[in-house]
Write a structure and sequence with these properties.
This protein has about 350 residues and is an alpha/beta fold. The chain contains 15 helices and twelve strands. The strands form two sheets. It has a six-stranded parallel beta sheet with strand order 3-2-1-4-5-6, with helices on both faces. The termini are far apart.
Length: about 350
């Protein structure tokens, strides 16, 4: 019943309130911007350098989206306000809408393919509203044109970071710079290994052998994962008491960032943590599987991608198994080639 009520309320906000809000614009509170961003960890990490440039340019920024955003922004020392979004009940949803209506941004933008992002941008009643609507074939939602003054789509080939950078250049005439984030230097001794990924076919099957090779060669490893990830992968139990290995149970996103910052290098799958390691300049090694590396790979000055050309990449990533049943894109990457490349770049 609750879902039905929220869906009806969503339609009301889209087809009735959205039109009224476009007539009820408000004077902005200084140089300010409101950003709706509903994507995962990796996408939000890629937004951090752009947020930093906006702050440096004097913008007051509020971001709305997933609960982890506030933790990341505080850890990275960015003066960006964060509003967590929840739509699990009508009461929580109305509380979020009330918080957004209190803002007086000069610009309100939706950077995610989310109808809720468009609704919240519209609810801000900013004098300038815009939606970045990439991949229209898959994700454009009904009523999206009612929320914005302008909608923007770019060539889907460039990396998503470059797309967002161009969006702000066109919107604000501000070049937000490249994909790097300055963080305090930490002289770490361990190699951070994150062998997991939300989608199972993104997980390279060679991690156990690779970790053994590292420790035998004199490297020290920190195996990063949440308790649930460790329980699902089996690596934690295998290496919990192994010499040269430390199994890290992560209970917060800030804890993940600390472990990456204190490491001497990072290796992992196509998942969020790799993006943070790359942005802060750690030697970053990524085992690339089924997704489109041209558009969403980690970016930075010291990134090494292991990828095999395969006809079915990118797949649409449905379900918990490879569509072809063999996960060939990752199985073709050998432990030997990864270890040799790693040893060339990072000495024991």
């Amino acid at each position: 019943m609750n879902k039905i009520i929220i869906r009806l309320y969503k339609y009301y906000l889209t087809y009735i309130v959205a039109l009224l809000n476009r007539l009820r614009r408000r004077r902005p509170d200084g140089k300010s911007i409101f950003i709706a961003k509903f994507d995962g960890l990796g996408d939000f990490f890629l937004l951090l350098p752009i947020l930093k440039r906006l702050c440096d340019a004097g913008y007051s920024i509020t971001v709305i989206g997933n609960h982890f955003q506030k933790e990341i922004l505080e850890h990275c020392g960015l003066a960006v306000a964060s509003v967590p979004f929840t739509a699990d009940s009508l009461l929580s949803l109305r509380s979020v809408l009330a918080a957004v209506r209190k803002l007086r941004p000069g610009y309100a933008v939706n950077l995610s393919m989310s109808a809720w992002g468009g609704i919240l941008v519209n609810q801000s009643r900013a004098p300038h509203t815009a939606g970045l609507l990439q991949e229209r074939r898959w994700y454009v939602y009904k009523g999206h044109r009612l929320f914005y003054d302008r909608t923007v789509s770019y060539d889907p080939a460039p990396h998503s970071f470059e797309v967002t950078r161009r969006f702000f250049l066109d919107l604000l005439n501000l070049d937000t710079g490249g994909p790097s984030l300055d963080r305090p230097e930490v002289a770490g001794r361990e190699v951070a290994v994150h062998p997991y990924g939300k989608w199972l076919p993104r997980r390279w099957p060679g991690f156990a052998e690779f970790i053994n090779r590292l420790t035998r060669a004199g490297y020290r490893c920190a195996i990063l994962g949440t308790p649930d990830e460790h329980a699902s992968g089996g690596l934690a139990a295998r290496f919990e008491n192994a010499a040269g290995c430390r199994v890290v149970n992560l209970n917060s996103v800030a804890g993940l960032l600390v472990e990456i910052e204190r490491s001497r290098a990072f290796i992992g799958n196509d998942s969020g943590p790799a993006h943070y390691a790359a942005l802060i300049g750690k030697p970053t090694f990524v085992l690339w599987g089924p997704d489109d590396d041209e558009r969403i790979r980690p970016l930075g000055r010291n990134v090494h991608i292991f990828k095999k050309e395969i006809a079915c990449r990118p797949c649409r990533q449905r379900g918990e198994t490879c569509q072809r049943g063999i996960n060939e894109c990752l199985r073709m990457i050998s432990v030997d080639e990864v270890f040799e490349k790693f040893r060339e770049q990072v000495k024991p």
